[in-house]
Amino acid sequence: MERVSIPLQLRVVQSQPCQAEQDDKWSTGLCECWGDMDDCCCAFWCLPLFVFKTNRAAGGCPCLPLLDCVGCGTPASLAMRAAVRERYGIEGDVCSDCFYGCCCYPLSWCQISREINKRRAAVQAHASSLSSSKAHYTQLVDQDDVHLI
Prior knowledge:
mainly alpha; 6 helices; PLAC_motif_containing
């Protein structure tokens, strides 16, 4: 039986898929609500729903925002702000998280939401640019008589 040589085309990965470029600053300021008026209006008119939605988008526990209703500070805001800072490598500390959570509660949640949305959009854009690049794949060929030694 005659062997047929099938050309094999390999796709070389030139860059690893990764999260958005990590910057050590928040992408927007605390009071920059004009970029996402839908979220800011939702936060203004129905803050508990907005907090729940943002918490869920960040992958937090659904019951975490209920702790803010109990009193004694704002543990959900503090925890979520710290988690987002840690995830995206944003500078800051617990004192600033506590200050923003207590003094600027709705604005803090809007900033967290904007950061999550912006980073997620950047990752999706990066992933779609990788998938849209032309890649050639060869189909596997049934080779019954071929044996590996």
